[in-house]
Design the sequence.
């Protein structure tokens, strides 16, 4: 018939095994016992600021040395631990807990977040969600965490698989964590260099306690 026409309907699909996809984007520290993953979402890629990040309640970034997070519960700045997430899948529940890194014993369940939605670039200004239920004040049984003990910060995500046909609906993420209450010691050997193409961005290099620490800061 002359009045017939062909219609094309676009659709979006997923190529791969959706059940095996990770629910949370990679952090600034790799998972314990796993290879480091590529970060998908950044707040600022220039300074390697991933959207998923371990921070303090004051939103300071926790330091990482040898794939281990450090904090100081008796200190003034990095005194607690919290999480901001770049969720890649919908999750019914996220549980945050502290484990003994040597025995895997659960020392404290910090809290749970419910009905966490994946990132949607439409209408969003931020590439992460700060999770208030993840905040740990550094206490176990009413006492401050002990220096020299190997801790694990564990994030257990229960996925919203809906009617997808089953599969593994739980993912566990584990990150090494230690207490460091030693006051920093810096040498006088400090280098400050301009970052090419950035007028106010400087690269600062200094020696502290026998290892090199690099950072970028906005200096006049």
Sequence:
């Amino acid at each position: 018939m002359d009045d017939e026409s062909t219609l094309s309907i676009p659709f979006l699909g997923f190529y791969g095994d959706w059940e095996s996809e990770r629910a949370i984007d990679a952090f600034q520290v790799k998972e314990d016992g796993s290879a480091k993953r590529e970060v998908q979402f950044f707040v600022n890629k220039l300074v390697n600021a991933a959207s998923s990040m371990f921070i303090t309640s004051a939103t300071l970034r926790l330091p990482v040395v040898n794939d281990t997070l450090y904090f100081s519960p008796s200190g003034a700045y990095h005194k607690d631990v919290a999480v901001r997430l770049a969720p890649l899948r919908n999750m019914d529940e996220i549980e945050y807990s502290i484990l003994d890194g040597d025995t895997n014993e659960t020392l404290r369940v910090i809290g749970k977040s419910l009905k966490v939605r994946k990132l949607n670039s439409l209408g969003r200004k931020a590439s992460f969600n700060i999770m208030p239920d993840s905040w740990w004040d550094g206490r176990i049984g009413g006492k401050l965490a002990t220096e020299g003990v190997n801790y694990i910060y564990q994030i257990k995500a229960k996925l919203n698989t809906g009617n997808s046909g089953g599969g593994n609906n739980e993912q566990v993420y584990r990150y090494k964590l230690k207490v460091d209450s030693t006051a920093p010691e810096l040498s006088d050997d400090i280098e400050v260099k301009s970052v090419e193409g950035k007028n106010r961005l400087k690269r600062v290099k200094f020696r502290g306690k026998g290892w090199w620490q690099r950072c970028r800061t906005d200096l006049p």
